[in-house]
Each structure stands twice: as structure tokens, then as C-alpha cells.
Amino acid sequence: MALPAQRNKLSRKRDQRRALLKGLAESLFIHESIVTTRPKARALRPYAEKLITKAKTDNQHNRRMVLRKISTKETLQKLFEEIGPRYADRPGGYTRIESAGWRRGDDAEMAKISLVDSTGAKEESVDAESKESEKDQKPEPTEETTTKKVAETKPKAKKADDKKEDDK
Predict the structure, then answer these.
(1) What is the DSSP string of 98-154?
(2) Cβ-count burial 88-123 (b if 16+ within 10 Å, e if not)
(3) pTM score, two decimals?
(4) What is the pLDDT of residues 31-69, one digit of tens each?
(5) Phi, psi of 99 (to 5 degrees)
(6) Cys-Cys link to 12, which of 16, 26, 103, 139 (CB 3.0-4.6 A)?
(7) What whole-number distance in Å separates Cα of residue 29 and Cα of residue 87?
(8) What's the distance, CA 157 to chain centroid?
């Protein structure tokens, strides 16, 4: 006999579980990356991906269907105007779950769930590239700057010697 697939109930009743997933999904869409426990991240993934799939086609019916699952209109607007079009040609797999270590206190396994190809990841890579280019553009120290540094350090050493003589 075929049985329905079991899902993780997250130690909550149905209404609490739905409210939890609704809140996590909204945070994910607003921030594009959140850190939570691994079981919650694994439960959130199909929930969020179904909403993104609906957001790829912007029509009134899909907006109403998604509005059932999330509560704020600002999140709905971002989902349909930014996130949905970004994944229009992607056939699925909009989220990524990465291990984030263990939570201090109760030792729960933490995970970072984020949208694939999110703008936050692009900004981080751009920042890394700009830092590398800044390193390349910095002039190497010349003989004048090195002699200045040596000259600055020598008087300090003399002052320390003077203090030793004064103590005697």
C-alpha cells in the first residue's frame, strides 16, 4: 500500500509550522540569505521554491496564490518584481543550503539558506575583486619611505635607553 511522504513536523502543530515557514520564507525573500537550524532550512526549501516558481509568471492569480503563503505586500512585490524575473529561465533549484556549524548553547546544527545567484553574493565577489585590484595598485615602498620609517623608529629606541639610564 502506497503511503504519503512524511515531512519533518519540526516539533510543532500544523498552524505553528505554517506560521514558522511563512516567517522564514519572508525573511529569506527580504534578506536573500538567512541562518537557521538545518531541519528548518530543509523544510523551508520546497516551500520557498514553490513560491518562486509561481512568481516567475506575474499574473493576478499567481499573486493571490502567493499572498496566501506570505503576509506582507512588500515581500510579495519584491518576489514578483525582482526575484521571479531573475529566475525566469532557471528550471528549479533556486535555493542553496550550506552548513554553518553548531549553535552554542544547545549544540543544534545550523545552516545558511540563501538564494542562488543572489545580489548579495554578487556584491561580495565584486568587493573581493576590488580589494584585489587595490592591492595591485598600491605602490611598492621606495627607499625614501623605508628610511623615514627607520629614522622614526631610532629615536624611540634612544628614548627607551635614556629612561633606563635615568632609572639607574
Answers:
(1) EEEEE-TTT-PEEEEEEETT-HHHHHHHHHHHHHHHHHHHSPPP-HHHHHHHHHHHH
(2) eeeeeebbbeeebeeeeeeeeebbbbbbeebeeeee
(3) 0.69
(4) 999 999 999 999 999 999 999 999 999 999 999 999 999
(5) -70, 140
(6) 16
(7) 13
(8) 48
